[in-house]
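Query structure, 178 tokens:
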């Protein structure tokens, strides 16, 4: 990736970070085919249609800036975003595209994310808030499979601990929302 592109992406992240109105930081430990893969990711939104996402792991990193729109249609909240960014693999740097859709109806929510960089990747998550501190759901991710997910929010803190079991992997994570 050339210097101009790095500078442009850095400036976009800084501008967005200064105007953040909401965000999450998450520490994940995934087990995939017997190997533990720790990673940290973050999502920041400015409440005006712009957001940024990053993920850093031992063998992979990515970051992108997205622009989108959200609206309440009847009693359903819907948000959609599309973004452009970069990824770093053992082979080097590359461009990537990303798109996401989020919908919430009462105690049920859906998140779908698709990314295209050196390969295609997707994640779909549907969850039901059983009680204010507990959510049950199903998580599907490319390369990991599909399986149940359990979220437990720690009262009086911004922290959620969640775990998922999928066909060929498992994930345990701690998420902090601000």
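Result returned for the query:
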């Amino acid at each position: 990736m050339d210097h101009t592109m790095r500078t442009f992406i850095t400036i976009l992240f800084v501008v967005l970070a200064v105007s953040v109105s909401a965000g999450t930081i998450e520490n994940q430990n995934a087990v995939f085919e017997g190997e533990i893969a720790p990673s940290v990711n973050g999502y920041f939104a400015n409440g005006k249609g712009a957001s940024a996402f990053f993920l850093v792991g031992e063998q992979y990193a990515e970051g992108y800036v997205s622009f989108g729109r959200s609206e309440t249609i009847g009693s359903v909240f819907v948000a959609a975003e599309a973004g452009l960014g970069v990824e770093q693999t053992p082979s080097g740097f590359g461009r990537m595209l990303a798109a996401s859709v989020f919908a919430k109806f009462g105690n049920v929510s859906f998140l779908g994310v698709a990314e295209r960089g050196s390969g295609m990747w997707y994640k779909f998550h549907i969850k039901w808030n059983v009680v204010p501190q507990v959510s049950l759901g199903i998580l599907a991710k490319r390369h990991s499979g599909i399986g149940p997910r359990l979220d437990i929010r720690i009262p009086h803190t911004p922290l959620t601990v969640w775990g998922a079991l999928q066909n060929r992997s498992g994930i345990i994570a701690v998420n902090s929302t601000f």
